[in-house]
Amino acid sequence: MPGVYTTVASEVSFFTTRATVLSMATETRSAFDSYSPTTRLQHGVVGGALAGIVFGLVIQLALGRMTAIGAMYTLGDPSLSVGWVAHIAHSVLFGAFFAVLGGPRLVSVLDGYAAGAVSGAAYGVALWAVNIVVLWPLWLSAVSLSTAPSVPYLAPRPLVGHLVYGLLLGLVVTALGARAAGPENS
User: Fold this and answer.
1) Alpha helical stretches, state H, 62-131
2) Alpha helices in the chain, H assignment, sequence order
3) Handedness of CA 138, 144, 148, 150 (dihedral sign)
4) Where are the domains positioned within the chain?
5) Which of 135, 144, 146, 173 could form a disulfide with 47 if both were Cys (CB 3.0 to 4.6 A apart)?
6) What angle do CA 138, 144, 147 make, to 5 degrees?
């Protein structure tokens, strides 16, 4: 019966390894859960600001649309400075919401930086779907901007920008969470 014992030993080894991996993932997630909503909010604000600056540079330099964001708040008058202030405010707000909502925990099958990257990218796509596909054209039309696109606005370049924003946001929130949890949980 050596074959039976070998098979049983292999199965026990497989389940022990799987249990260890699951235990490690649970410990990492419980470390995330252990810090306060205020700490998560702070991580989201920092992540949103950093990701927003990078995304803002993409909007201004590659897309040339930062003045259009300003026009949304000046009733049609394009403004670069108002565009930057509004964009960073949106970035910080959406970053805080992401972190308080759960951040990297939004993806339950992954852990660590992979979870942060995937959940952040998914969040970026969701922001694009709501803010750019629907709200952007409606708001630009409401302020009588003659170049307002129609709904749905399915432009791929803003999608890429929102993916970059979400990816960076997820990674920064994850990194700050690992730092807050201490070296034993990172």
Assistant:
1) 66-73, 80-101, 112-127
2) 2-34, 37-57, 66-73, 80-101, 112-127, 136-142, 156-181
3) positive
4) 1-32, 35-181
5) 173
6) 80
